Amino acid sequence: MSEAARDDVLEEQIDQWRGFVRRRRVISPSDVEEMEDHLREQIADLGANGLDDEEAFLVAVKRMGNLDAVSREFAREHSHRLWKQLVLVPEADDGSGGLTRWRELGVLLAFAVGAGLAVKLLFTSVDDGFVQTRNFFFVVLPFLAGWFAWKRGVTWRVCAAVAAVAAVPALAVNLYPFEADPGPYPAPGMTDVLAFTHVPVVLWLLVGVLHTGGNWRSHDRRMDFVRFVGELAMYLALIALGSMVLVGLTFGVLALVDVDLEPFFEDWLLPFGVPGALLVAAWLVEAKKSVVENIAPVLTRVFTPLALLMLVADLVALVVNGPLTTVDRELLILMDAVLVLVLFLLLYSISARDPLAPPNVFDWLQLALVGAALAVDAVALTAMLTRIAEFGFTANKTAALGLNLVLLVHLAWSAWLMLGFVRGTRPFAAVERWQTAYLPVYAAWAGLVVLVFPPVFGFV
């Protein structure tokens, strides 16, 4: 290979490295140039010692260390720049198709106002609280999905396909003849409850299709959506806490001057505030990603050992609570909630891990957590099957049994892949891909509960 050709190959490699570095928003363009100068110096020094260009490039990049660590170091040393990037609407363009953040924020607020108006219309035009609850997500999530479709430039064909799929559960929950539980106080039947608690799962994963830009088959895009959901939950929690403090103080001050804020709160603040908080939190997650380290994966490091201790305690409680037929139904429901929590911890810890890093102590801790979750799931399944054998099938028992089976498959194969990884016989990419490949199973199960369970169990 001629010297000119070798130079071209080296420049191409440096160009790829430069593009990778620029995606870290804490590193400014001037910092990228400084790092590139340092990289070229390293390559020149290594070349002078006898390495060819390709070897020198690889060794130089390795010496510069993990890029996430470099990003954190820049964030620490240039904190004044970092905080400038954390303002809501920076002056610089964000590079997304020439659109400025101001325009993006304006579109987001338009979708948020639209969602508030839709909720207000639902609450004023429908008096039945059950119907309002069933349709709440159908009038809010389309606006979040619409914003993602606009932001990602999703084609009309994909949007129409997502809307058509979403229309199926919308028609089902509104046209099915659900029967209320008899008694002095009206209450929705079990199939009604199962329908409106599983509909959000279906709709949320449909929103995920638009979050990926319609490229749902992409493993990386699905994992980005997983990260987005975790960060969204954290931002929503912070917004909710701040709002409660602000509203509480406002109520207290106005009460002292005999101003009743409750009608305004119920008629306007809640209908616009709840969907508005969802869309603003989504915008914040999108605007701040890659600027600072994500919150959700950090919390998994804290809660994973605590969750392991909790699972061991739960397992002991299930085992020593007498015959499995006497295990309280509420306890089994709580066990399902714990297993879902473990699943979230697993997903967000995997989403934040460097796939090229070797196994460490935390990986073994995660494997122990998944193993404990499998043990709890096995005991819960045994208790459910025992109760069904004695008392027969009902809608809620069947739904709980199905969820536990879905979780069992997910956790069992995750444990097998993680065991291979920590033993060095399987790459971490296999563990990561399994998590995102299994997500459609949850949508399929939720859709089954929404569409099939009500007619099978007589709409009661």
Provide structural commentary:
It is a single chain. With 460 residues, this protein is an all-alpha fold. It has helices at 3-22, 29-48, 53-63, 67-77, 79-85, 101-125, 129-152, 156-175, 190-211, 219-256, 262-288, 295-320, 329-352, 361-391, 395-422, 428-437, 439-451, 453-456.
TL;DR of this structure?
The chain is mainly alpha-helical and about 450 residues long.
Percent range for β-strand residues: under 5%
Alpha-beta content class: mainly alpha
Radius of gyration: 26 Å
Roughly how much helix do the residues carry, as a percent range? over 70%
Main features:
single chain, 460 residues, mainly alpha, 78% helix, globular
Q: In terms of topology, how is this protein built?
A:
Elements: H1 3-22, H2 29-48, H3 53-63, H4 67-77, H5 79-85, H6 101-125, H7 129-152, H8 156-175, H9 190-211, H10 219-256, H11 262-288, H12 295-320, H13 329-352, H14 361-391, H15 395-422, H16 428-437, H17 439-451, H18 453-456
Helix pairs in contact: 2-3, 6-7, 6-11, 7-8, 7-9, 7-11, 8-9, 9-17, 10-11, 10-13, 10-16, 12-13, 12-14, 13-14, 13-15, 14-15, 15-16, 15-17
